[in-house]
Amino acid sequence: MDWLLNLPIPAMTLVILAGTYIATAIIYLAVTRLAVGDRIRAFKAISPGMLPPLAVVFALLVGFLAAQVWSDADRASTAVNREAGALRTMVLLADQFPGGADARLRELIRQHIQTAVKEEWPAMARRGATLTIIPGALAQALKVAFELDPHTPGQAIAQREMVASIQNALDARRQRIVLSGSSVSAVKWGALLAQIALMLLAIALVHCDNPLANRIILAIFATGAAASLILIAAYSRPFGGAISVRPTLLEQVMPEAGGS
Question: How far apart are CA 228 and CA 232, in angstroms?
Fold first, then answer.
């Protein structure tokens, strides 16, 4: 489903709506063709009371999946915010160590952000980023921070805070890479699609003797089901697709070359 989930929202909406309406039309035509003679009496014997339980199960599935994708998106955004905040703190603390160390630290932060934007973000969008690759710039920055020689109490505090900020940035990076691999599994998609198909079939059977009412009710439910699918699909990849977490905050805290 990568091709679908990476589409712009308007294109994704059209594809999902078209697919849902086509499936609905197939179910309606099949039931209408079969609803003759004894079979129509058998279809009408199906109790409309089965529709509310099916609707409840559908609502629970949608709520469960929506909660998952929204939670993943919020956690991904929080991780990026935390990483950007930690990097900005490092830039500010680096000014406490003039004489070359500050310029070296700012350059390492620049390298880390450039690598994150140009290499890690495309890999995360493909769900191909892993934790096996150590962020060299941050690792070097941590080494530089440990090697600093503070001469005042203020510099000693700044060194401790800088080390903590680097560790915070490393942990935030780890979280965003882990979250980049999250998605709605095929089993969950299959369960949701099967529930939609069952609801459409039940509606078509219950109202098989009234074609106009049947078409209206099927169209209403199909539209609502498609809207639910669009909502879940749009947020199913925290770092991929049209609605995703961008590296904007990291770019905003990137120190200028030779400056702060």
Answer: 6
Q: What is the pLDDT of residues 193-203, one digit of tens each?
A: 999 999 999 99
Nearest to 93 by CA among 136, 157, 42, 37: 157
pTM metric for this prediction: 0.85
Contacts of 248 (CB under 8 A, 6+ apart): none
How many other C-beta atoms can be found within 10 angstroms of the C-beta atom of residue 10? 9
Give CA–CA dist 111/84, Å, rounded: 14
Residue 229 CA: distances (Å) to CA of 21, 23, 57, 117, 194: 13, 14, 15, 30, 12
Query: Using the 8-state DSSP alphabet, how is residue 119 labeled?
Result: I
pLDDT of 79-89, one tens digit each?
Answer: 999 999 999 99
- Measured CA distances, 183 to 91, 95, 110 (Å): 34, 41, 30
d(CA 207, CA 120): 53
What is the Cα–Cα distance from 84 to 90, expressed in whole angstroms? 10
- Give CA–CA dist 116/203, Å, rounded: 50
Which two structure tokens, joined as six digits, stand for 249? 């905050």
* Interaxial angle between packed helices 186-206 and 211-234, expressed in degrees from 0 to 180 and rounded to the nearest 10: 170
Token pair 């904007």: residue: 248
First to last CA, the chain: 43
